[in-house]
Amino acid sequence: MSSISEAGVVTSVDKELFIGGKWLPAADGKTFPVLDPSTGEALCEVADASPADGVSALDAAVAAQADWANVAPRERGEILRRAYELLIKRADELALLMTLEMGKPLAESKGEITYAAEFFRWFAEEAVRIDGGYAVAPNGTGRFLVTKQPVGPCLLITPWNFPMAMGTRKIGPAVAAGCTMVIKPAAQTPLSMLALAAILAEAGLPEGVLNVLTTSDSGGVMEPLIRDGRARKLSFTGSTGVGRKLLEQCADKVLRTSMELGGNAPFLVFEDADLDAAVEGAMTAKMRNIGEACTAANRFYVQRGIVDEFSRRLTERMEALPMGRGTEEGVVVGPLIDEAAVEKVSGLVSDATERGARVLTGGSTVDGPGNFYQATVLTDVPKDARLASEEIFGPVAPITPFDSEDEAIAAANDTEFGLVSYVYTSDLKRALRVSERLEAGMIGLNQGLVSNPAAPFGGIKQSGLGREGGTVGIDEFLETKYIAVAL
Ligand code: NAP
Fold this sequence. Notes:
Elements: H1 6-11, E1 17-19, E2 22-24, E3 31-35, E4 42-47, H2 51-69, H3 73-89, H4 91-102, H5 106-126, E5 133-136, E6 142-150, E7 154-157, H6 165-177, E8 181-184, H7 191-202, E9 210-212, H8 218-228, E10 233-237, H9 240-253, E11 256-260, E12 265-269, H10 275-287, E13 297-303, H11 304-319, H12 339-354, E14 358-361, E15 376-379, E16 396-402, H13 405-413, E17 420-424, H14 428-437, E18 442-445, E19 464-465, E20 478-486
Parallel strand pairs: 7-8, 7-10, 8-9, 10-11, 12-13, 12-17, 13-16, 15-16, 17-18
Antiparallel strand pairs: 1-2, 3-4, 5-6, 6-20, 11-19, 14-15
Bound molecules: NADP nicotinamide-adenine-dinucleotide phosphate.
């Protein structure tokens, strides 16, 4: 760990709005506090943007768009590459900052900084690979030219659970494509985004290309920008409920949208699976980010012949996880983001036990300070338990046995969500058959982690629209233009 102190790392961040390349206080001078979820205490105050500040940020993005679109793709890529290197160089202090505002253990924060930086490295490489086409028209007389251009100024909204990576997954392709942007991080974790903005400026991103709004009034500030008509795209990561509302707002001016929404991932373990690998994968899929991930395994379906053994081993692993403040050495289970999150998880567990689920370990809140909930395993979870249909977003693993493949697939698909599904089996034919039948944008086949900047991340059904990362990620920020050529 670097020698930088907790107070030092918080002090080092600019806490104003980043508009047109300048750090500015909110026009009305307001600020709001950022809390440490492991203590409930305020870390600092940041500028609280008003709707008027929002318009200033959009003005800056609009003003910068034409020049930015003309910057050579190689130069745009090199800015991203420099930002990638700065992120890696400062990973320790950025990880500490993230742990302080979000709560996840330091090792996970460090992992997220690397993951976040990798989006910049990937899109630095993609910036110079934007393709086009030239073709002879079917009647032979004309020619088609096809080229891709930046969508235009974008609005980006990110959640608190991955405060840096959810930003770079949008900023990387937007920069690579030649779009300017206004980004609004979640009020609970604005510091990582502010630190990222400073890094991008240091890496040479021109004024106005990236504008950052921190605000305690996300709806009040963003809705007028969505309805303004000058921004041409909204890219949102967050809950399905908010996503739905934003889609309605976007309809007004027909904005392009990318929606990375909620999940309810099933985790299927067949009797022929490598049980060691399945338990290991279950720990990753469940406990990464303290269970506060859209990709978190939300429902475990385990074939009846191995359900007791799987449950026993998972319980042993969950019981052994050290809980505490994310800055403490060896901690794996940090605090949840806020009191409401603890109440929600607690309510879901009570509902499941009232309907007949049994607690194998955990099942309780932890006395404060901080928003802690025990790592929990539930078994015999009935179908109608609320946690079978709602995102738990906490360290709770509900297990339900199944008998047949058809039964497991039907249970897995019985949800409005379709982000990711996990399957453990050693039978290749079953692996492919089940993967094809699962209704999800991503499948973890014998692995508990799917996220990779080089792969297309995203969901189907009510888990979203569009993909981030991979070779398709940049397309979300490009428009295709066809030029009909008469010869
Ligand atoms: P959220 O409540 O939907 O908030 C997400 C973002 O939207 C935050 O920046 C929030 O700002 C903002 N927001 C809330 N209401 C808004 C409104 N009316 N207008 C404009 N912006 C608004 O979600 P969350 O609790 O932060 O994040 C957890 C959710 O995100 C989970 O459902 C999770 O599955 C999902 N998620 C999905 C992915 C994916 O890639 N599919 C990745 C990560 C997380 P404030 O919080 O400041 O109000």
